[in-house]
Amino acid sequence: xxxxxxxxxxxxxxxxxxxxxxxxxxxxxxxxxxxxxxxxxxxxxxxxxxxxxxxxxxxxxxxxxxxxxxxxxxxxxxxxxxxxxxxxxxxxxxxxxxxxxxxxxxxxxxxxxxxxxxxxxxxxxxxxxxxxxxxxxxxxxxxxxxxxxxxxxxxxxxxxxxxxxxxxxxxxxxxxxxxxxxxxxxxxxxxxxxxxxxxxxxxxxxxxxxxxxxxxxxxxxxxxxxxxxxxxxxxxxxxxxxxxxxxxxxxxxxxxxxxxxxxxxxxxxxxxxxxxxxxxxxxxxxxxxxxxxxxxxxxxxxxxxxxxxxxxxxxxxxxxxxxxxxxxxxxxxxxxxxxxxxxxxxxxxxxxxxxxxxxxxxxxxxxxxxxxxxxxxxxxxxxxxxxxxxxxxxxxxxxxxxxxxxxxxxxxxxxxxxxxxxxxxxxxxxxxxxxxxxxxxxxxxxxxxxxxxxxxxxxxxxxxxxxxxxxxxxxxxxxxxxxxxxxxxxxxxxxxxxxxxxxxxxxxxxxxxxxxxxxxxxxxxxxxxxxxxxxxxxxxxxxxxxxxxxxxxxxxxxxxxxxxxxxxxxxxxxxxxxxxxxxxxxxxxxxxxxxxxxxxxxxxxxxxxxxxxxxxxxxxxxxxxxxxxxxxxxxxxxxxxxxxxxxxxxxxxxxxxxxxxxxxxxxxxxxxxxxxxxxxxxxxxxxxxxxxxxxxxxxxxxxxxxxxxxxxxxxxxxxxxxxxxxxxxxxxxxxxxxxxxxxxxxxxxxxxxxxxxxxxxxxxxxxxxxxxxxxxxxxxxxxxxxxxxxxxxxxxxxxxxxxxxxxxxxxxxxxxxxxxxxxxxxxxxxxxxxxxxxxxxxxxxxxxxxxxxxxxxxxxxxxxxxxxxxxxxxxxxxxxxxxxxxxxxxxxxxxxxxxxxxxxxxxxxxxxxxxxxxxxxxxxxxxxxxxxxxxxxxxxxxxxxxxxxxxxxxxxxxxxxxxxxxxxxxxxxxxxxxxxxxxxxxxxxxxxxxxxxxxxxxxxxxxxxxxxxxxxxxxxxxx
Length: 1023
Known about the structure:
This protein has 1023 residues and is α+β, with helices and mostly antiparallel strands.
């Protein structure tokens, strides 16, 4: 369909809102007057701004769902794999998750759907049991939906279904019949998915069940049933854009409806809201609406624990209910407002025959369709209510399609959010439901039999398996321990071979110093080691291993064979070991060094083995462990082979940079900037990627600690925090750098004996470590980002590491994952910004400039924000942030946690120019504002800073807290997108940018400028 026709079609399919039935002119004293609406418009403007700010801050993530493409791609991928394979999709879920699916299926999934959807949201055995009995499990797919992953009803259903599927289909094929939709990172269901490898879909962070209908929760069943989810999301986006583009609040459908309902509830005491659908296909939408309304608006407290006790009770009715309910609506208590759902075109046309024309009481029905009669009944009900002074509004859908339903769902969600803002409550917070779950969990002991308290010493074999569990978690743990032993033995070549991801066999061969026959046997005794002899030596241990736990821990859960030979000895000594102990197994021919073979890992402990993942996943963990070890040992060659296929081949190299080139690729390693610091016995050597090269997790922040010997990889939170602070204001929220750090400490300054697997380190002086790392990283990055890069080749674009899930091995690194746009970030040379020629402003937010063979696009808000931030930071360092006193101090209400953060860190706010003091519970009295904020809403800034401080926590470094406050202050004080700039203002801004360090990014890490080279422009026109 041509674009213009599609636009006209969408305009024709736009949902219509009629509020005339709520006005005093239609219903009299119980309606809203025109004067009330006009006087209320400033409050609606406040709500509009408040909701927009929360949305921009990520607090209303459901509003971004219509525009997210990757989740839709994933949903369509999974749904495409089940269509044709199954006849029935049973959704195991409860609450908003189940009701949203019912709404979609009820409205759009007809008799000819690809898959029949059944929503099992009850654990009543009289309904759930017979349902399972009726199903052909071989043709049934189950979708388990739980955001928390611990919803008692849903998990109980899942456990029953899983057991029956395994019994009927077998322990392998049953997984094909389960798709789990849950949180990406936490919860018991997430752990089950990770361990058992079910097909999975993710519920985004911050999405409650009642707002999840446009996530994978609703989209997957819809797509499986053949519903056009692209049109569903397009409808939601259409309603969103319509509201945001409205010139006045009363032209925004959601805000206008929310304002009218608020006035009726608070000034006319209309505390019952009836949603009356004159379309049976929308009945389930009414059920979903009732939960949305009740859970979003039924609150007893607002921000700062302020008592609210406000709510509007929702009621869902249909056309059939007019015969039972209309009487009480018309003649009963005037405490209700009705919102009708009306449909112009009901689709199927069923006509009434033109018979009995001579009977006045029924003859008028002939010749009309049932849809027309249904609409006539709706209109008659509306008029009957108006005649008795009962207010009503009408939402009209041109037809029931995916596009119109998307509009309706998004409109009702936004109306709930706007009404919550008017009431001063948070629509996302849940109370009673979660308290109910907590009470249910508290009663769990009712299921447990009384136990007799007995204490007994565990048998030695059980003790050994428990100890092994602390050291050996999976095949990667075995590889790590054996490779560390090889490195400690002075190996220069280490070869690792796996079968079945290490679940079947692991073999590690090295050319290091071998062991004598006696030592090889003794190595399997717990805490037998050659690395130290006295407790005081722990403080200065220079080897990777030192506890003597690796081999006995492995032997406790697997069969082990060690073949070892010292140089000069005629043959190799062979030792075999398992949970029963170690024993000599003769001699064999072998080169000098040691070979360790491990078979049947966790074979004797099925409970442990079932928690391991697929061979591909376990292989990926081995690759991660081996690459981290290899990065710190460039002079050692490493090889990894899996099922006869070479996975890694790392010959020895000169230094860490060359080794990183092998691991990350030469081009990326070449872009790393080096840092060298030596201070009072503490040493730092680091390799840092530019801020434009980021990943979505901290998996490529590698930190190593050495006490004068080998460097040990550690996952220390202090070091990660120091790295992130070093990149402060250079990274987008939620993005992480690529950085490799090697820290050297004198003996006694770090304790490596604090974690069973030696993965964590404790520092004697954590603050000194932080003060060593952060300034060094900031200074080096500032210098590295100043020089202008070489002209970008055609098609260049920002680089980003692919940090998505990996089924196989290797460090999956991919260019261009961050953005599809063929533009590169621009770091100007000294004077580079001022030398640009300003061409114009586009989209009221982006400056187009030209200079030196390139077009430079500048985000005016990000650029001005960076300038203001650096100015504030400089003034803050001098203790001289310019400020103005308020003639009348401003009182600002805050949530309790935010008010506490301000009380704890009031000096941070004062140093930024926002002086004041706590003024009662949950209130802050503001006395001065920074001069930079002149004309801006200081209260909004204080709230934002308080939120930042609360999120940083009490342990946050003062410098980081101050920077967060200054960044927020800068963001709220500068020119915004949507403001026009004249050429003089642009030139002043460009000149100011040249005086700023690291001008390529705003304080929140967003890019300031991107460049399009002349060659790229010419290539677009095939020159």
